Amino acid sequence: MPDELSDDELHELISAARASKSPATRVSGGAAMSYDFRRPQQVNKDQARRMESVHEQFARLLAATISSNMRQVVDVDLAFCDQLVYNEFIVSLPSPGTAYSFVMGPHGGQAILSLANDLVMAIIDRAFGGQGRSFTGGDDRGLTQIEMNIINKLASRIFADLEATWEPVGRVEIAEVTLEANPEFIQIAAPGDGCFIVAFEANTRSATGLVHLCYPLGSLEPLADQLSPKPGNRNRQVDRAQVDQQRRALGKMKIPVHLQVARGALSLNEIAQLQEGDVVTLDTQKDEPSVLFVGGRPKYLARPGLSGRKRAAKLLDEIDPDSEDLYG
Q1: Which residues contact 76 (CB under 8 A, 6 or more apart)?
Q2: Do 144 and 197 share a structural domain?
Q3: Is it the case that residue 33 has pLDDT exceeding 70?
Q4: Tens digits of per-residue pLDDT, 91-134?
């Protein structure tokens, strides 16, 4: 049986143990940073800025496409870019709604394009001859087949714009486009996967709505190197490519044109007394040129005539912008 330690020996052991302990090291360098594990930030700041720059170009193309479709000026601005968990984005979308899932070939990554209900209804109203008003009125009904066909035609043009937007970064071919009224049925990522969200605010004459793009971070991995900063020469090439894309998009936009042959003014009493067969004398002289309006603004002096079996106008002169009020 081992010998027992005396009180002095026990005191010496305890003192030695206390002396061997090193003081806790104090870490300097500022306060600890919080980290939200539900929102993993996997796109660095440089890549996020590049994504924002790329999609500012898409906003311009989107504005031209929707304006052409609705035959009225539509403003589209980049609202925000953010990183969210996939499930958080999905539950934020309306149901029923208008959400497209698609594949970003040739890399194989998937993404989502979502259009706000108010914007969709305004586009449909305009297609049916209305003023472009949103007529949801709190009714959460889905789209009819005819309405789907209208929106699908517009979506095909939007996806063409999106392909052109990504061209300076890397080749993207959009395929396997699927329209889904209930976004919860779109399963392109796990609920907890991180996503990069780009939101655009579209403003028509009578409606406002958001357009969302959702890129699961896994879909952006093949493009990560291209999204990283490049030398200035590369940036100049991107700028030129964006200008060319915008020029091509605007070149396809149709602007309403009409020819004003003559004009004058009548009192309300005179208008009330008009009957079939009456001759109305106008203020325009018979040898005075007509005015060609482009997009509702007087742009050219012209002479009316025929070209084949259709009416035409021969341009005589351009109207000075400072003189447009004289012809308005």
Answers
A1: 59, 60, 62, 63, 66, 200, 201, 202, 203, 211
A2: yes
A3: no
A4: 999 989 999 999 998 877 899 999 999 999 999 999 988 888 87
Strands 98-105 and 173-180: antiparallel
Which has the higher per-residue pLDDT, 217 or 107?
A: 217
- Stretch 277-301: mean pLDDT, rounded? 85
Of 232, 251, 270, which closes a domain?
A: 251
* 284 shares a domain with 143: no
Q: Could you give the 3-state DSSP secondary structure of residue 140? A: coil
Where do we find the tokens 């406002």? Answer: 208
DSSP H or E stretch at residue 24: none
Pick from 118, 114, 134, 123: nearest CA to 71? 123
- Angstrom distance (rounded) from CA 256 to CA 122: 20
Task: Give ∠ CA 223-85-169 in degrees, rounded to 5.
Answer: 15
Q: Please, what is the average pLDDT of the chain? A: 83
Cα torsion 50, 56, 61, 66: sign: positive
Closest Cα to residue 260, out of 230, 233, 298?
Answer: 298
| Strands, sheet with 75-85, edge to edge from the N-terminal-most edge strand | 75-85, 194-203, 208-216, 109-115, 98-105, 173-180
* pTM for the whole structure: 0.60
The region of weakest confidence among 84-98, 207-221, 238-252, 259-273 is 238-252
Q: Is the CB of residue 195 less than 8 Å from the CB of residue 217?
A: yes
Task: Tell which residue, 215, 165, 212, 224, has the closest CA to residue 188.
Answer: 215
Range of the domain at 110: 45-251
The predicted-structure confidence for 240-249, as pLDDT tens digits, reads as follows: 666 776 777 6
Give the count of domains, the chain. Answer: 2
> Is there a contact between 249 and 162 (Cβ–Cβ < 8 Å)?
no
Please tell me the distance from the alpha carbon of residue 239 to that of residue 313, in angstroms, as a whole number.
Answer: 38
Separation of alpha carbons 152 and 132, rounded Å: 17
